[in-house]
Amino acid sequence: MIVLVGSEKGGVGKSTIAAHVAVRLSMTGKPTILIDADPQATSWAWAQARNKYKPDSLRVETTKMTGDIRPGIKDLAASYGHIVVDCGGADSVALRSGMMIAHRLIIPSKVARRDLETLKHVSTLVHTANEKRESEGQSQLLARVVFNMTRALPNFWTRIEGAKKVVESLGLGVCPYPIVERVSYDDTQYQGGTVFDDKTDQKAIDEMERVLKSLLRKENTE
User: Fold this and answer.
1) CB count in 10 Å sphere of residue 207
2) Contact 38, 65 (CB under 8 A)
3) Do 141 and 172 form a contact (C-beta atoms < 8 A)?
4) Where is the CobQ/CobB/MinD/ParA nucleotide binding domain (predicted)?
C-alpha cells in the first residue's frame, strides 16, 4: 500500500500522522518505508531519533525524495510492502506526483476556518489527479480529511460537525474519528516513537487505531 500524507497547510500534524501510519503498517509484518518529501525533513529527523533511541523498536526504513517521486516509489515498491510519504504543507511537485501513484491520501486539517479554506485547492488537485488516473486506466485515489488537534470538549463537537459539512461539500471524504490534541503524541515523537511504541496513553493508542483503520480501509464507513 502506498499512503500519501499531505495538504497545503503547515502545522497540522502531517509528520506525526505519517510516523504513526508507518509504525502501524510495519506492525502488519510487511517491510515499511517512510519517504520524507518535505524540505523541513521532520520525518527524516524522527527516523534518525528512532534509530538512536529506540533500536529495539519496530523498524521503519526512511529515505528522502524531491520533485517527481513516482520513479523512486516504483523502484521501492519491489522491496517494500508499505510505502508512506510525508509530503509537507505545500502544493508541490511531490504532492501532485504522489497523487498519481498513491492508493490513499490522508489530509490532516484543523477545524479552524483558515485551515478549511486551504482544502478547496486540495480538493481541486484530487479531482484533477483522479481524472488523469481514470484516463490512464488507474483506480481512483481515495482521499480523506482527518481533523487533528481537536479538543476533548462536548461543545467542540459542534465545530467538528460544521467542519465536516464544509469538507464534504468540497467532495472530500472525512474520517469519522477526530484526533484529540494530546501531549503523548508530542512526547513520544521527540525520541522517534509513537503512542504505539510508548504504550502509556491507552486513550491515544485506541484513538489512533480507530483513526488509521478508518483512513486505510477501502470504504470510509464507521
Assistant:
1) 20
2) no
3) no
4) 4-154
Q: Nearest Cα to 196, choosing from 14, 22, 4?
A: 22
The b/e string for 144-174 (b: 16+ C-beta within 10 A; e otherwise) is bbbbbbbeeeeeeeebeeebbebbeebebbb
* pLDDT at 90 (0 to 100): 81
Q: What is the pLDDT of residue 88?
A: 78
DSSP class of residue 115 equals H
**3-class SS at 112?**
coil
Please state the pTM of the whole predicted model. 0.94
Helix axes 42-53, 14-26, angle to 10 degrees: 50
Backbone angles phi, psi at 63, to 5 degrees: -150, 170
Tell whether the model's pLDDT for residue 159 goes beyond 50. yes
Grid cell locating 42: 521532520
Average pLDDT, the chain: 94
pLDDT in tens, 68-78: 999 999 999 99
CB 108 within 8 A of CB 208: no
Dihedral pair phi/psi, residue 159, rounded to 5°: -65, -40
3-state helix, strand, coil in the chain (%, to 5): 45, 20, 35
d(CA 7, CA 16): 14
Question: Which residue segments constitute the domains of the chain, with CATH numbers given?
Answer: 2-210 (3.40.50.300)
